[in-house]
């Protein structure tokens, strides 16, 4: 409705006059007063001084994905470059503020792979998984958007101050909240609907039963988005939420093939890094080389690999993920792995 009104009348003053003249209008807006001109001038100066920009719902560079939903803000404050949100495919990656080592490892692997594919990544600049996503995106010079639950000029958490600056140079910070708004707890569930609305798909890495990431996933479901969840141990509090999402119908992230299939990512020729010539394993790390030498085209269980390579169980899963990202191995059901041979 607000978009249609702005398209019809262009000016909020005209809208005000039309609505107040309508006798049956159910809301009393006659006591609304125009903003003081001097106040507006001060705000404009503040925005310019702090390099803060505003985009209105009827502007061409307003994120087009948000236009599909009635509850989106009429204006957004942002710092950085907002244009790529309308040019690229956006994927949201969210998760626990207190992730396990497993959660961090998986978040890193997923983020690095999507950065390699130049997919724009959206998250919330919180501690934990969000910070991992933004940091790696900046490291890889990949576009990232942080949707925050405070005013655009309020950095929260403060520990992410330097990351906040880096994101501005590699993407944008986005907020619907007025300037100087504090990071109050009820702001975050509200901002989560923007994270999900901006994105084609939402990946939840780790989430407890009461995690805000589940709110993002819930908004995504309401918006018709595809939800991908990383399964975890049934004994881990940080995986209870993601495991529940999977039981409710979310796509389980079982390997990087999950991303290739759901995002329709074609395998780059450069991903086929090795073939049956052992000389091509020079680009592997020492641990990767040991694993690769013990694999064949016959599936081998991860427990057998651990015995063969003499490696810690927590480390081997990370290395196997990385090897799959390089398209070196097949991941099969039941924790079996096999070497991938490619034609010369």
Structure, described:
This protein has about 350 residues and is of the alpha/beta class. The chain is built from 13 helices and twelve strands. The chain has helices at about 1-10, 10-20, 35-50, 100-115, 130-140, 160-170, 185-200, 210-220, 240-245, 255-260, 285-295, 300-310, 315-325; strands spanning about 55, 75-80, 90-95, 120-125, 145, 170-175, 200-205, 225-230, 250, 300, 330, 335-340. The strands form two sheets. A nine-stranded mixed beta sheet has the order 1-2-6-5-4-3-7-8-9, with helices on both faces. A three-stranded antiparallel beta sheet has the order 10-12-11. Strand 4, helix 5 (about 130-140) and strand 5 (about 145) form a beta-alpha-beta unit. Helix 7 (about 185-200) crosses helix 8. Belongs to the DprA/Smf family.
Task: Pick out the low-confidence regions.
Answer: 272-282
Which whole number gives the mean pLDDT?
87
Strands in their spatial order, largest beta sheet: 1-2-6-5-4-3-7-8-9
- What would you call the structural class? alpha/beta
Quick one: overall form? elongated
* Record field, number of beta strands: 12
CATH architecture of the largest domain: 3-Layer(aba) Sandwich
Q: Which band does the percent of strand residues land in?
A: 5-15%
Q: Specify the CATH class of the largest domain.
A: Alpha Beta
Question: Briefly, what is this?
Answer:
With 344 residues, this protein is of the alpha/beta class.
Question: Which terms would index this structure?
Answer:
9-stranded mixed beta sheet; DrpA_SLOG; Rossmann fold; DNA protecting protein DprA; 344 residues; alpha/beta; DprA; 3-stranded antiparallel beta sheet
């Amino acid at each position: 409705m607000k978009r249609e009104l702005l398209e019809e009348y262009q000016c909020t003053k005209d809208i005000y006059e039309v609505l107040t003249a309508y006798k049956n209008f159910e809301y009393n807006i006659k006591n609304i007063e125009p903003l003081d001109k001097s106040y507006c001038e001060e705000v404009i100066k503040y925005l310019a001084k702090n390099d803060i920009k505003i985009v209105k719902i009827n502007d061409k560079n307003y994120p087009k994905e948000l236009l599909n939903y009635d509850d989106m803000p009429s204006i957004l404050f942002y710092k950085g470059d907002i244009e790529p949100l309308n040019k690229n495919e956006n994927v949201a990656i969210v998760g626990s503020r207190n992730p396990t080592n497993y959660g961090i490892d998986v978040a890193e692997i997923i983020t690095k792979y999507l950065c390699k594919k130049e997919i724009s990544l959206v998250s919330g600049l919180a501690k934990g998984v969000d910070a991992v996503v933004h940091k790696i995106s900046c490291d890889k010079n990949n576009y990232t958007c942080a949707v925050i639950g405070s005013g655009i000029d309020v950095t929260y958490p403060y520990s992410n101050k330097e990351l906040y600056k880096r994101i501005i140079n590699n993407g944008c910070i986005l907020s619907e909240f007025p300037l100087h708004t504090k990071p109050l707890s009820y702001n975050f569930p509200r901002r989560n609907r923007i994270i999900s609305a901006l994105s084609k798909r939402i990946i939840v890495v780790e989430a407890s039963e009461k995690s805000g990431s589940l709110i993002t996933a819930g908004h995504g479901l309401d918006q018709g988005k595809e939800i991908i969840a990383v399964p975890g141990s049934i004994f881990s509090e940080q995986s209870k939420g993601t495991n529940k999402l999977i039981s409710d119908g979310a796509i389980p992230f079982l390997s990087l093939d999950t991303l290739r299939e759901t995002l329709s990512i074609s395998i780059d020729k450069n991903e086929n890094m090795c073939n049956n010539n052992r000389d091509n394993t020079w680009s592997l790390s020492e641990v990767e080389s040991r694993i690769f030498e013990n694999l064949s085209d016959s599936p081998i269980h991860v427990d057998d690999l651990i015995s063969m390579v003499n490696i810690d169980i927590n480390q081997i899963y990370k290395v196997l993920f990385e090897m799959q990202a390089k398209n070196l191995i097949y991941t099969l059901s039941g924790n079996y792995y096999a070497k991938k041979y490619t034609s010369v």
